[in-house]
Amino acid sequence: MKITDIKATTITVPLEAALRHSNGTHWGRFVRTVVEVETDEGIVGLGEMGGGGAGAELAFAGLKSYLVGHDPFDLNRMRYAICNPTASLYNNRTQLHAALEFACLDIIGKKLGVPVYQLLGGRVRDRIGFASYLFFRYADRRSGRGEVRTIDQLLKHARALKAEHGFHAHKLKAGVFHPDYELECFRALAAEFPADTLRYDPNAALSVEEALRFGQAISDLRNDYFEDPTWGLAGMRRLREKLSIPLATNTIVIDFEQLATNVRDPAVDVILLDTTFWGGIRACVRAAQICDTFGLGIAVHSSGELGIQLATMLHLGAVLPNLVFTADAHYHHLADDIIVGGKMRYENGAIAVPEAPGLGVELDRDKLATYAELYRSLGGYAYDRDPGRPGWYPLLPNTSFADHLNDAVPDLGLG
């Protein structure tokens, strides 16, 4: 079997509301690039990558000369064809490789008639649990609905998600407002759901000292872990020496060199494995095995997925014996998806691992066309900017937080 073509289509899919984070905002939609790898046997594999536009489409087009004629079964050769570690100093293709690996695994599974998890050694679970993944949110400018800013709004939103999807763990994406206020919010969540576990993630916005103070103030709660409270291995190592809560990261241990450093001189207890950031599902499986060997925890991380990447997360979670934490997913914030059958469904806080050959999902081409046209109409947005605070950008550590009492409602340009 040979690869004959690679097609990339950038789309934008609406969210229920604009999601705020410490570095900016998702402006009421996700921008993703869907990748299709075609073969001479008529089998097409699907991949997905965050971001997009002409740049992403050109980047994938630029890899055709590397991969047309390549056997999609030869995954190790493909990795070095486009991600040679020395050559990659000049062209960071890790996330491109991830999308292409997804597609090749999809092709292999379809060719052999087996789900991707069988290619990875077989599943040890058939459902993957997820956390609620709570965000502070801007209200819709037209309807005024969807805002999450006050403690009451946060608790109402969390109750609604738990009632609809059955979540038993709650992650608060934070670093938006002053830590003192977010501490009130986080403790209110703990009081509202005393039987559930929690995780707090300010995206490294806090200084070591502020993170230490915050961590000590939540040490009595049912914390899964304290995620990326501050930036850098050295800062996290200082925190780890002083806090009883496990520390987690998806920002400072995202490759094998960093993982080796963390094994030699521990700074982080839980490694959050992202199938895009690590360069594919197979890299995440290998990293999980290393973590198991050295007694490090793991969880499955979300980078803003549609159904194709969600499928990669489900197959990954299915094959990891040492996965004890629920996964993250932005997925329940989506208003729609581009896979046949629409959005996958949660049941008691979990999603079933796809059983069909390959990744187990198929493109809804009408939806793909609709959201490709929406992207062409709206264009992209600056993920690392806040439309409610023109001219603002965060420092690390951040000292300029949003005002939870007097928040503007920005125009997100959604029509």
UniProtKB/TrEMBL annotation:
List the EC numbers from the record: 4.2.1.40
- In the record, which residues are listed under signal peptide? none
Ranges of residues in domain Mandelate racemase/muconate lactonizing enzyme C-terminal: 151-246
Alphabetized SMART domains for the sequence: MR_MLE (SM00922)
What reaction is this protein's catalytic activity? D-glucarate = 5-dehydro-4-deoxy-D-glucarate + H2O
Q: In which pathway does it act?
A: Carbohydrate acid metabolism; D-glucarate degradation; 2,5-dioxopentanoate from D-glucarate: step 1/2
Q: Name one GO molecular function term.
A: glucarate dehydratase activity
Domain of life where this protein originates: Bacteria
InterPro entries cross-referenced by the UniProt entry: DgoD-like, Enolase-like_C_sf, Enolase-like_N, Enolase_C-like, Mandelate_racemase_C, Mandelate_racemase_N_dom
Looking at the UniProt entry, the stretches that span the membrane are none
Q: What is this protein called?
A: glucarate dehydratase
Identify the species of origin.
Answer: Mesorhizobium ciceri
Origin organism lineage: Bacteria, Pseudomonadati, Pseudomonadota, Alphaproteobacteria, Hyphomicrobiales
